[in-house]
Amino acid sequence: MVEGALITGGICFSYWLDFGFSFLDPNSIAWRFPIGFQIFFALVILVFVLELPESPRWLVLKGKEDEALNVLGALSDKPSDDPFIWGEFQAIKDTVIENQKAGGIKDLFTMGPDRHLHRTMLAYINQMFQQISGINLITYYAATIYQNEIKLDPFTSRILAAANGTEYFLASWIAVFTIEKFGRRQLMLFGAVGMSFSMAMLAIMDSIGGKGPGIVAALNAFIFPCVWFFYPETAYRSLEEMDSIFRKCDSVFTVVKIAKEEPQRYGKSGELLIRYEETEEHRQRQASVVSAKGVGKIRGEHVDDVGHPNPDYSAENGTGDQR
Known about the structure:
Elements: H1 2-21, H2 29-36, H3 38-49, H4 56-61, H5 65-76, H6 83-99, H7 116-132, H8 135-148, H9 154-182, H10 184-205, H11 212-230, H12 239-248, H13 255-261, H14 280-291, E1 297-298, E2 301-302, H15 311-317
Antiparallel strand pairs: 1-2
Helix pairs in contact: 1-2, 1-9, 5-6, 6-14, 8-9, 9-10, 10-11
């Protein structure tokens, strides 16, 4: 969500930059500098991304388990031998081991136990919702629409476009602070209703005579039932929990119900509610890996060969080092 807010911040900045440099027309610097200035932000990202750690999932995949534990601990501000971190690490490792059985990109179009096609379509349709809402039309062509369709003068058109970009940026921060409180589904449903209502009002008051706003209003209204019936809530869920939820569903219509009924492993403040090592899912995955020759090896070790790094935890829970 923060990434999305920063994107809208860039859009806002570009509008005001274009507005300021428009006074330099017809000098070519009016369009050359705004285009070239984008390099500055790319260089800032390049410098700071070098210090970012690798993903724990990638580290586990490459056999760098100690480093993965350290990264997980740093992200949660806990020691790497904390039960919370260890449970998260085990869930990631089990998932990575199972994913090693995958056949590559073609698996995205298969409907096996992991329901890859189901999940791919949900992701694809979610991105389609963004495009059919008409947001890119306003993002890229607001000033042109104001000037050519509504017949405003160039100065007013540009400043209105910049003001719209500023509102776009400020509004994007609302979701950053409310998404965990209300959940993804609730905000998607609210957004669909809000966009549909706005376009419907525009269609009613449209003096241009076009049917575009009415069509977009209908498309936005269609988003509501799609989210209601097909998109599970992911708030306070880890990626591994969502894997488990999709594995338990047998139809595109049951995933929402299962997500509502499935106990959460983490509380609203990030506290550990259910230890992954104690779940039936973990035991089943361990048994599956053990029964498959060579599949359960990461870094040349068997999956059951890794004990908890904290000996007190191992003694308490009977999960001592089995090497």
